[in-house]
Amino acid sequence: MVVGYWLIMSSIMRKQVDIVNNKSNLAEEVVESVHQVMHQFRSLQFRALKDGAHDLSHMEAKTLGFFASRPGATQSELVQHAGRDKGQVARLIAGLRERGLLEASADASDKRSVRLQVSASGKALQQQVRKQAQRVSTQAVSGLDEAECRQLLALLAKLRENLTQDGAGNGL
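The chain above was modelled as a monomer; its predicted structure follows.
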C-alpha cells in the first residue's frame, strides 16, 4: 500500500515537473521565435543597403535615426538613451562623421560639448532605411488582418512589460 502511494505521488510530481518544463520550453520557443523574426527583418532591411553605396550596420542606422529625431543631441545623450558603452558610441559616431553622414558643431553655451545632426547625405540614407523598413514591415504582416495585428501588438506589449518589470532598460 505504501509503495503504491509513493508510485502515485512520484507520477504526479513527475507530471508537475513536466508541465513546468514544457511551459519553460514553450517560453523559450516564443522568445526564440521573436528573435528569429527580428533577425530576419534586419537581414532583409539591410541587405539592400549593404549592396548599395553605403554599407550601413544596424547600429549605425539606429544612431542616424536617433540624431534624425533629435537634431543637436550630444554623444552623451545617445549613450544615456541607448545604454551602450561610451567607447562603442564614440566609434559609431566617428565612423558616421568620417563617411559624411553626421555633422558636428560646438555647443554655443559649452564649447567642450559637441552637438550632432544628420547631414544631407545622412538624411537621404535615413529615408532609404525608413522606406526599406516600411516595405519589410508590410511584407511581414501580409496575410494578417487588422484585428490580428492589434492582437499581436497587445501580446508583444505584455512581453515587453514582463521584461521591464525587473528594471531592464531599453536599448538602441
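Strands lie at 102-106, 114-118.
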